[in-house]
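Anyone? Bumping this.
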Amino acid sequence: MSLGNTNNPIVRLEAVHFAYGEGEREILRGIDLSVRRGQVVAIMGGSGSGKTTLLRLIGGQLRAHSGRVLVEEQDLGQLSTKALYALRRRMGMLFQFGALFTDMSVFDNVAFPLREHTDLPAELVHDLVLMKLQAVGLRGAHSLMPSELSGGMARRVALARAVALDPMLMLYDEPFAGLDPISLGITGQLIRRLNDALGAASVMVTHDVQVSLDLVDYVYFVSNGMIVAKGTPSEIRASEDPFVRQFVHGESDGPVPFHYPAPPLASLLDGTSA
Amino acid sequence: MNVLLKILRTMGAATVNGVWRLGFAARFFLAVLRYSGQSFLRLPLTIRELFFSGVLSLLIILVSGLFVGLVLGLQGYDILQRFGSSDALGIMVALSLLRELGPVIAAILFASRAGSAITAEIGLMKTTEQLEAMDMMAVNPLARVVAPRFWGGVISMPLLAAMFSAMGIFGGWLIGVVVIGVDDGAFWSQMRAAVRFEHDVLNGIIKSFVFGVTVSWIAVFEGYDCHPTAEGVSRAITRTVVYSALAILALDFVLTSFMFRGI
């Protein structure tokens, strides 16, 4: 499925621990993972399991309390802001709802990273932007404003913007959330196609098990801040691990409780609990 | 005893939070200044904000200035004619506007109109992850979004205060000379003789510059620091207007006590 050299890890996390404040509960507890060039890797887990935090650590938006987060062998915890920005020029991130700049047209949104980071002539920027929009099927929508786009279209424009500088690493935060089945399928195909065309690596945080298993090369399952299962899609489908089974088949009974912790209902009814 | 401890604890927490936030705001201010060079190198960004903060506030400033001038003309004439000094109406209107009302009212109007808009815009950009997206694209939001808005406000403020004062003087002239019948020559000549540029006009400009820095700082900080929710943005806008008005009035007293002590 992948075209690039899959031997070089672009992202490597080593025994990463993270909490949002001193003395706060640890969100991530000893995470180890790696993503190689050409791979699309999914990070799955329940809400609040630490998936998005993990993505933010890889993007350098958060810094690990202990352990190392390496992108292209550079330890993000040791980088200055300038060095981090230099690295980010080679990353792209798709936010959950696109995060398009609402005061700019679709064209200007996609042109934004090109104008900020290159000295390309306006004609070349124009052609590159239209090519990126063509790749996501929205060349005809280049003059629209973000408010005129549907959720799926906004996500595709954001994808075109994220790949404008041909990144070596793509980060996706819930790319399928709230999409209709057609947009969902299109977005999934685009993620795979763009990754293969760029020879990049992609890390995708998602809840959408079936679509993800069809397009990714490897899956990590996160629960309570730890990686509880990992494997290729076929290994995941065949897994007998209770957590993986519950997640993949959407079962209510399993290691992940359906109910938020509370006293037993009986104690509420007989008046022994407030 | 427990209640007392609880009150003390609440007050202590509020004080610590207040001091912490003030310190954060000061660090934020320094960071904005640090990245201001980039926004001046890319002048169109700052000019765009000058348009949004300055030009779009012009109407409310001019209309308010006119009404304040009309009221000053009426009140001033009513008082001065009791002492047979109605010819000094021009002096009273001009000095009131240039020294106090121009900078103060223009700044309060600016905080309500442009300051709240700046807070709302930055706050919504934060809520919709636009600032985060920019940061992930290796574009510093402080340099690209915050600094141009800050300097747009700082530059606009003295210009708006000058327009306010000019319109106010016109309003005073309209009431005093055209409607009531004060001598036109006396109105202007007494004003010219009494108003000193370095003492009255320059101090007014300094005041409006200080107010511009204060209001713009509060507006960009509240937007950048707001909770990324609808309620968070709404609270931030309220804080911008309230803190700005209080800061303007308090600073006006401090500046006036240094600038105008009857010397």
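Late reply, but here is one note on the structure posted above: The first helix of chain B runs from residue 2 to 34.
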